[in-house]
Automatic annotation (TrEMBL):
Keywords noted in UniProt: Coiled coil
Keyword hit for Coiled coil: yes
Record protein name field: L1 transposable element RRM domain-containing protein
Coiled coil: 53-87
Family: Belongs to the transposase 22 family.
Length: 269
């Protein structure tokens, strides 16, 4: 082989070795630089995560504090609510007792009153008390009232005066003697229909509105009892007494009890 050719090969080998050495150094440097860059990025990311975690921890601590406060407030509200419920039940019970007492007192204050329904407006003139005393004596006769019944007062209900042709207002009559009032009510139940100068009218007890509502619910069951041949009587304030065919009596304090009794009687018939 010529010397020039061998010299060329040696030169190429040295150049290749030099390139290889340079490339390794550059590669190591590049890798080190990349590693440092990655570490820097990682540290930056970790620092950001640490910051966010700190914020989250602060937020969790804040929420925990608020939840604790809300729980304390809820417990306080529950305690106050329990006390209010207890007070409400107590007030409700006392109010019901007071309503019952007021209704009873109102009923007692009206026990001598009678309602006359059906008489034309202004028929009584300017002296209604005297007029209705004479009317009752005339309608029920002197056998029942040898003298005029004693009335404390008599007047129309306090509703506005109706227009001509409308239903007249009922008349409120207060007897001075309760016995006379009871006597006239018993006679009215016997006669059922009363007439004065061609005008038909009726007499009713003057009950408080609460008592009227309580008594009204017995209307249907009383009709059923009449159909069965029994003798129902509605006692004050709202108690149903039944006289059975054998003469014995039963007392019901609610319409449900009376309805169950009617069902039992219907089954036995």
């Amino acid at each position: 082989m010529p010397k020039s050719h061998r010299a060329g090969k040696k030169s190429e080998s040295a150049e290749a070795a030099s390139i290889t050495a340079v490339s390794k150094e550059d590669l190591l440097a590049a890798l080190a630089e990349h590693k440092n860059s990655l570490l820097a990025d990682l540290n930056t990311s970790l620092n950001r995560i640490d910051g966010k975690l700190d914020c989250l921890q602060q937020s969790v601590d804040s929420h925990d504090s608020r939840l604790t406060s809300l729980e304390d407030n809820a417990e306080s509200v529950d305690g106050r609510l329990e006390k209010l419920e207890a007070c409400y039940l107590k007030v409700l019970t006392e109010n019901e007792k007071l309503r019952t007492k007021v209704t009873d007192l109102e009923g007692r204050s009206r026990r001598s009153n009678v309602r006359l329904v059906g008489l034309p407006e202004s028929i009584e003139g300017v002296q209604p008390t005297n007029f209705f005393a004479q009317l009752l004596q005339e309608v029920f006769g002197r056998d029942l009232f040898p003298s005029l019944p004693e009335l404390d007062r008599a007047h129309r209900s306090l509703a506005p005066k109706p227009k001509p042709g409308d239903r007249p207002r009922p008349v409120m009559v207060c007897f001075h003697r309760f016995q006379q009032k009871e006597l006239i009510m018993r006679e009215a139940r016997v006669r059922k229909t009363l007439v004065y100068q061609g005008h038909t009218f009726r007499l009713y007890e003057d009950y408080p509105s609460e008592v009227v509502t309580q008594r009204k619910v017995y209307k249907a069951v009383m009709s059923s009892l009449y159909e069965l041949g029994l003798k129902p009587a509605l006692l004050y304030p709202a108690k149903l007494r039944i006289t059975q065919t054998n003469g014995t009596r039963k007392l019901f304090t609610s319409v449900d009890e009376a309805e169950r009794y009617v069902e039992e009687v219907n089954k036995s018939v």
